[in-house]
Amino acid sequence: MSRARNRVGRPHPWRRRVVLVGWLACVALIAVRAGQIQIVQATEWRGLAEAQQVGDQPLPAPRGTIFDRNGQPLSVTRERVRVNVAPNEVRDGDAVAQLLVETLGVGPARARRMVTKGRWNVAGLHAPVVRDRLEGVPGIYLDLVFERFRPHRELAQGVLGGVIDDVGRGGIEQAYDGALRGTQGLQVVARDNVGKPIPGEQVTVEAPRAGGDVVLTIDTNLQEIAQAALLDAIDEHEAVGGDVLITDPYTGEILALFSMRDGHVGALSALNAPFEPGSTLKPFTVAGLLTHGLAEMGDTVDVQDGRWEVEGRVLTDTHTEGVMTLREALRESSNVGIAKLAQAMPPGLQYENLRDFGFGTRTGIELPGEVPGTLRRPDLWTAQSRASLAIGYEIAVTPLQMAMAYGALANGGVLMRPRLVSDVRQADGTELEARESEVVRRVVDERTAATVGRALEDVVRDGTGSLAQLGLFRVAGKSGTARFSSEGGYQRGEYSSSFVGYFPAERPQLVVFVKLDRPRSGQYYGGAIAAPVTRETMEAALAAAPKLLSLEALAAAQGTPRRVPVDVTFADAPLRPLPPLPGLLEAGTPAADGTITVPDVTGRPARTAVRDLHRFGLRVAETGVGEVVRTVPAAGTRVAEGDTIRLRFAGPAHD
Question: What mean pLDDT is predicted for residues 265-288?
Answer without folding.
Answer: 94
